Amino acid sequence: MPGRPDMGGRLVVVSNRVALPDQTATGGLASAMRAALQERGGLWFGWSGKVARLSGEVHRLRDGMVEYATMDLSRSDHDEFYDGFANRTLWPLLHYRPDLVDYNRKHLAGYLRVNQLFADHLMSLISSGDIIWINDYHLIPLAAMLRERGVRNRIGFFLHTPLPAAGLLIALPLHNELLETLARYDLVGLHTPRDRRALEEYFLHELGATMRRDGHIRTPDGHSFRAEVFPIGIDTAEVAQSASHADEHEEIHDLKQSLEGRALIIGVDRLDYSKGLPERFLAYARLLERSPQLHRMVSFLQIAPPSRGGVPEYRQIRRELERSAGHINGMYAAPDWVPIRYVNSSFPHSVLSGYYRAARVGLVTPLRDGMNLVAKEYVASQNPEDPGVLVLSRFAGAAQELGDALLVNPADTEEVAEALERALAMPLEERLVRWRRMMDVLERQDVTAWRNAFFRRLVE
Ligand code: GDG
């Protein structure tokens, strides 16, 4: 097959969540992995998404060349591993929020226990030539646990979140015991050069590792691995194609009609404190305050499907946003104008791409984000003859590639309000130039290029 690296060996993907064949693959990780497995065949292993009386029951399913194996978790394993250490300790730490880190030994023990369980089950699922690709912060120590069991296969790891500087990482108790296990992978992939530098700095300065001439990082106990940058992409052609057919969807027609010619600003994010939503609402309020001429002329649609409802910080941010949206509408709404439409449900990708295309401005302002695929999807969905403008946080990994967006500091309300004003007024020629340059990047560095680059490096 053209473009497909010849790499032998079956692909085994491991991630916390698995998108089964009858489920829509939400998120970039899920769709990238599914496409890779469909292309070359293989196995996808992860948590079933179910909480059962006991951990460990495995469900298997085959769909063409792809086999799925998923495992249930008990309530305590789920709460300590997933809601606990993964999402209340690692997630805030990796997103530069030490103030939100909730650390306790019980959660760490649960995290290690579930990783051991993953390792035990994988032992009966893999064979010697398989190439193993493990994903994300839920499963950092998994390679080390597989190595302890004698596994000598090629094992790669991709971190989908940012990696903060060593000065922050050391705030995690027992950080070295967890992070040194990264050295048991052959290849560790990160989204941006900044993340890679952070990893290198941590290994060299905190763990006493050295940099070999061939670029491997070597730990004092003799393990070496490579850490490299692979910015994840989207299926650019598919998103563009889907957006160009958007008008066939009733939802798009209804949205446009409700706008009555007003310019639309759109945000789409999982409801998560890393996405900068309270700050974004304040910036929009600031826009309305400083630009009365825009009243009744713009509408801001924020789509925010709730996530991780078992974690208190997520319930808290949900309440905060409800209050904030209510407050802004209370201040500015008119009988025929709702300034902010705040929607807590999720939509199929085909509809989302139509919403993106209908929006004059894409407002993507995470406080920190590994990459941020919404920014890329917004650009790929635009009408090539009349594209909208992306306002993007400097702290999203995507800002490294999308320098033609209007880049902002999401905490600076004034700067974001100014960028919104500028985006709304931007002449067509400037929009065309900026959009074309961003689209060139997205076409070159799409999701197929991303996963092929990672595989190639892993099997080299
Ligand atoms: C993590 C990292 C990194 C959103 N709402 C709906 C919906 N979505 C889809 C989007 C997009 C995906 O979910 C979100 O991806 P992001 O990259 O924006 O953010 P995370 O979920 O936090 O992803 C991130 C990513 O992993 C990949 O490495 O970029 O930095 O945090 O594709 O379109 N999809 C559907 N309905 C919705 O309402 N179907």
> How much β-strand is present in the residues?
15-25%
The main sheet comes to: 10 strands, mixed
Q: Estimate the mean pLDDT confidence.
A: 95
Order of strands across the widest beta sheet? 3-4-2-1-5-6-7-10-9-8
Uncertain residue ranges: 1-6
CATH fourth-tier homologous superfamily of the largest domain:
Glycogen Phosphorylase B
Q: Count the domains.
A: 2
How large is the radius of gyration? Answer: 22 Å
Label the structural class: alpha/beta
| CATH domain class name of the largest domain | Alpha Beta
Oligomer: single chain
Ligand species: GDP-alpha-D-glucose
What's the CATH topology name of the largest domain? Rossmann fold
Measured distance between first and last alpha carbons:
19 Å
Overall morphology: globular
User: How many extended strands?
Assistant: 16
Tell me what the CATH architecture of the largest domain is: 3-Layer(aba) Sandwich
Can you characterise this structure?
43% of the residues lie in helices and 18% in strands. The protein is α/β, with parallel strands linked by helices and 460 residues long. It folds into two domains: 11-233 and 447-459, Glycogen Phosphorylase B (Rossmann fold, 3-Layer(aba) Sandwich), CATH 3.40.50.2000; 236-444, 3-Layer(aba) Sandwich (Rossmann fold). The strands form two sheets. A ten-stranded mixed sheet has the order 3-4-2-1-5-6-7-10-9-8, with helices on both faces. It has a six-stranded parallel sheet with strand order 13-12-11-14-15-16, sandwiched between helices. It binds GDP-alpha-D-glucose. GDP-alpha-D-glucose is lined by residues 24, 26-29, 160-161, 232, 268, 270, 303, 305, 346-349, 352, 369-374, 377.
